[in-house]
Amino acid sequence: MLPALPVLLPLLGAGATVVVGRWAWAQRVIGVTVLAAVSVVAAVLLVMADRGGPVVAEIGGWAAPVGIVLVADRLSALLLLISTVVTLAVLVYAIDQRIADYGRRTASTTFHPIFLVLSAGVSLAYLTGDLFSLFVAFEIMLAASYVLITRRTDARRIRSGMTYVIISLTSSLLFLTTVALVYAATGTVNLADLAERVAALPTGLQTVLALLVLVTFGIKAAIVPLHFWLPDSYPNAPAPVTALFAGLLTKVGIYALLRTRTLIFPEGHPSVLLLVLASVTMIVGVLGALAQNDLNRILSFLLVSHIGFMIFGLAVTDAAGAGGTALYVVHHITVQATLFLVSGLITRRTGTVSIDAMGGLAKRAPLLAVLFAIPALTLAGVPPTSGFVAKLALLQAGAGDGVATSVVAGIVILASLLTLYAVVRVWVRVFWGEPREPLPDNDPDDDLVVGTARTATPMYVATAALVAVSLTIAAAAGPLSAVTTRAGDDLVARTPYLGAVLGQEGAR
C-alpha cells in the first residue's frame, strides 16, 4: 500500500490542520512534516520502481481492471518526488511570508488544509491507474486551486480566478465526456486495459478519442491556442500560490498527455499536429513575454513557451523523446517555481511588478540578484545548467527523427535564444541602473505585502533551496538522465506497466 501514502498522508494532514486550526504552530508543523514524509515515500517508490519495476497498490483488494489501482513506475515516482520537494519549499516560503506579515500566532483556517488537499490531488494524478480517478484528481486540484487563488483578495483577482475556474470547469466537462465515450467504446477506464482495447477500435474512433484527450489535457497544460487563461490568472495570485501553480499544475497536464499518448494512443511516427502545436506554443509564448512589462506576466508567458518544449518531446514517438520530455518536466518544475518565488521577493522589495519602475536591486539586494540570475539562466538553457541538459536531451531525440522534427529542433534553439533575451531584459531593468525607492503598498489589507524590505530570512532560504535543487539536477545529470532514459524505454515498450497492472498475461 506504499503508493497510497502520498495521497492519504496529505488528506489526513489536511484534516488534522482543521482540528488544530486555533494553533498556528501546530498547522505549520503538520504541513511540513506531512510533505517531508511524502518526499521520503516518493524517494523510496522511485528506488523500488527503478530496481524492480512498477509498484502497484490495489485499492480495496480488487485487482485491475475491475478495481482502482495506484501505480508508481519510474516516471510517476520521479515526478512525484520532485513535485513534493518543490511543494515543501513553497510551503516553507508561504509560512514565513505569513509570519512576516501577520505574526507567529496568527493561524489560517483555510490555507494549510487546502494546500495539503492540492498536494494530494497532484499525487493522485501521478499515481492513478485509471481515467476516472485521473478526472477525480483534476477536480481535487481545481477545487483547491480556486480557493488558493481567491483567498484574501480583491475584485480584480476574483475576476482572474473566475476566468481560471470557468476554463477549468469547461475542460473538466470535456474530460468527463471523454471518459464516458471511452467507457462506452471499450467497457473499461483502466489505463492498462485501455492500452489493449483501444487498439481494437476502428481507426477513426481512435483518432476522435485521441483528439478529445489532446484538447482536454491541452487546456490544462496551456498549449497554444488553449493557453489564454494562464497569463491572466497566475500573475494575480500571491507568490507562493503562483509558484505552486506554475511548477505543478501545467506539468500534471503534460504528464497526462505523456501517459495517455504512450500507453493508449501510441504512434509509430512523429505527430505532425503535435509538432505544429509545439512550434506555435514556443514562439507565441516567448514573443508574448517580450511584449510584457509586468514581471509576473513575463514569467507566465515564458511558462507557456516552455510547455512547447515538452510538447516537442511528446511529438517524437521514440523512447528518447519520452525520456527527454520527462527530464525537461523535472527541470522545469523546479526552475519555474523558483522564478515565481524570486518574483515575490522582488515585489516585496520594490512595491511594484512593473520592471520599468524597478532598478538597482543588484546594489541593494545582491543575494536577490543571485537568486534570480541562476534560475533565469537555467530557464534559458545556458550551459552547464539543468536547462541545457534537458534541452540537449530533447534536441538529440528530435534532430535525427526526420526533416519535420529537425525543423522544430531549430525552433527550440530559436525559442531558447529569445528566452535568454527576455530574462536578460528583466535583469537589466530590475537589477542594473540606479536604485529606486520602493513604491508604497496601495492595498495593505490584501495578501500581498509590497514596498518593504521586511522579508523573513527563511523565505530566502526556501528559494535558495530550490536553486540548489536545480543545481543538483545539473550536477547529477548523468544518473538522472539514465533514469529518465529507462523511463522512456518503459513508456514506449509498455510491457513493464501492463505486466505490473494486469499480470504477466497482460504484458503480451
From TrEMBL:
Q: Please provide the Gene Ontology terms (biological process) for this protein.
A: ATP synthesis coupled electron transport
Name of this protein? NADH dehydrogenase (Quinone)
> Main subcellular localization, coarse class?
membrane
Domain spans labelled NADH:quinone oxidoreductase/Mrp antiporter transmembrane: 129-411
Q: How does it sit in the membrane?
A: Multi-pass membrane protein
GO molecular function annotation = NADH dehydrogenase (ubiquinone) activity; oxidoreductase activity
Spans through the membrane: 26-48, 78-95, 107-126, 132-149, 161-185, 205-230, 237-258, 270-291, 298-316, 328-346, 367-383, 403-428
Family membership, please give it.
Belongs to the CPA3 antiporters (TC 2.A.63) subunit D family.
Question: Sorted alphabetically, which keywords does the UniProt record give?
Answer: Cell membrane, Membrane, Oxidoreductase, Transmembrane, Transmembrane helix
| InterPro entries recorded | CPA3_Na-H_Antiporter_D (IPR050586), NADH_UbQ_OxRdtase (IPR003918), ND/Mrp_TM (IPR001750)
